[in-house]
Amino acid sequence: MEKSKLRIIISISAVIFFLITLHYIGWLSPIEHLLRGIVNKGAEPIYQVSVLDNNIETDTHIQIENLTMQLEILQEENQELQKQLLFFSSTPYEHVGAQIIGRNVDPVANTIILNKGETNNISIGNPVITEEGILIGKIAKVEKDTSIVRLLQDGQSKIAATIRNEEKTIGLIEGGYGLSVQMNTIPQNQNVDIGDTVMTSGLEQGIPRGLYIGKISEVQKEAYQPFQEAIVIPAIDSRTLHIVSVITQEALSQ
């Protein structure tokens, strides 16, 4: 019995040694190539299914992220529109809601583009405000379906303003000072303090009184100058806005 087992082991070893020898001398290459092709063809569908599953999972994840992002944008816009409705429900102004569809990246010109224009009764000089009634600029150019807003910080921007102090000091808000604006032509005998609120004076045609502009952060007063100046920080950063309102001229003939 043991001799029989030994004989079988020796025979198997001889066959294995013979096959190894044929492999190294290359005589088994055609057979090995054939077998490798059969195995690869059998594995290819499995690989394709695996890749397909990964692609589907990746696409689904991207679609969910896009839908989530779109939902968040719609929620933000809805909140802004609700604030606009609340503000205008307590004011006599007629207005047109608009989306910001472009921004000027020129450091000299500080403007934005709206998706509303002449067809919406918008005209040059109309004030542009946020949903909370904060003034951000005036319409500078109008086309059929779009318009350009010159922001307060623009170097060519000028707005008649007043300070909410005892004297109701009036002056002129001008841009061209970076993110802040400057109130000029303030009489020397007026008491102006840091933290004072600045709003539109109503002395400029087309701009109603009381639109919030910002607060004074610095007062510049020289004894030999006829006027003092004040640096004003706008109440809102216009770069964060997506929806605004344009107060139309019709509202001013109330």
From TrEMBL:
Gene Ontology CC terms: plasma membrane
Location of the Rod shape-determining protein MreC beta-barrel core domain: 100-247
One GO BP annotation of this record: regulation of cell shape
Coiled coil ranges: 64-91
Alphabetical UniProt keywords: Cell shape, Coiled coil, Membrane, Transmembrane, Transmembrane helix
Presence of keyword Heme: no
Membrane-spanning segments: 6-27
InterPro entries tied to this protein: Cell/Rod_1 (IPR042177), Cell/Rod_MreC_2 (IPR042175), MreC (IPR007221), MreC_beta-barrel_core (IPR055342)
Any Pfam family: MreC
Record's keyword annotation contains ATP-binding: no
PANTHER family assigned: CELL SHAPE-DETERMINING PROTEIN MREC
Membership in a protein family: Belongs to the MreC family.
Name used for this protein in its record: Cell shape-determining protein MreC
Species this protein is from: Candidatus Magasanikbacteria bacterium CG10_big_fil_rev_8_21_14_0_10_38_6
